[in-house]
Hints:
The chain is α/β, with parallel strands linked by helices. The protein is built from twelve helices and nine strands. It has one domain: Vaccinia Virus protein VP39 (Rossmann fold).
Amino acid sequence: MQNExxxxxxxxxxxxxxxxxAGRWEFLRTWDLxxxxxxxxxxxxxxxxxxxxxxxxxxxAQGHRVHLIxxxxxxxxxxxxxxxxxxxxxxxxxxxxxxxxxxxxxxxGPLYHLVARxxxxxxxxxxxxxxxxxxxxxxxxxxxxxxxxxxxxxxxxAHEVFARMLDHTLATGEHRNLGDDRHWFTTAYFHRPxxxxxxxxxxxxxxxxxxxxxxxxxxLPALDEVLxxxxxxxxxxxxxxxxxxxxxxxxxxxxxxxxxxxxx
Length: 264
Ligand SMILES: C[S@@+](CC[C@H](N)C(=O)[O-])C[C@H]1O[C@@H](n2cnc3c(N)ncnc32)[C@H](O)[C@@H]1O
């Protein structure tokens, strides 16, 4: 992993990133999608780029056997302390896992940190190899337009450096943090919504579906008020289920999930 990505994660933000606001909404929606995508427990699940185990922990609590891979030793140590989760340091492009050993593989992180397309295909191929025939690969990507929207929502576009970064991102998909604000994230690739199915197909997987994670709701100024109210949260989840497969909204969602299957 590149040094600047390591430096970014060494600051330790992943333990609390999904606790509030847009992060909490990202977690609730990703979890909701996972619950409707994965077959019932017990499955053998490989969580590649699983960080501190935000999804691995709850999946293990449901009775799945979860093994987590991440390049950051600090993340792996935190994940390995979770009940029912095993974890090891590793890289999505070269997994030290046997062929066809898992019922499902999650790629929630690697695809947006691998800037070169060949590296992303390698990560998809490794997931396709580790999952059993008929098993699922579920992958998260970040929208090409997330930085543009974030620039306005959070006021980052007031900074000339951010505006320059954004021009490059919109043109190429490549995001490089040229400033010193950690909220501007780190080296990443931001996909156009139509790209992940092609990457999955190139790795030999059958595309199943794409779904918006947050939809446009991550931009709501009053998002925390909605999430503090169980009835309003349930309403938002119900509405997002209705539009998650709507391609016209995908680019406005911060994250997109792509579901693909290894041919039987
Ligand atoms: C933003 S975190 C996402 C964590 C969690 N999976 C989630 O969805 O909230 C991205 C994770 O991807 C990991 N990562 C980055 N490059 C990777 C690679 N080449 N292989 C595997 N994991 C990688 C990082 O260390 C980090 O833990």
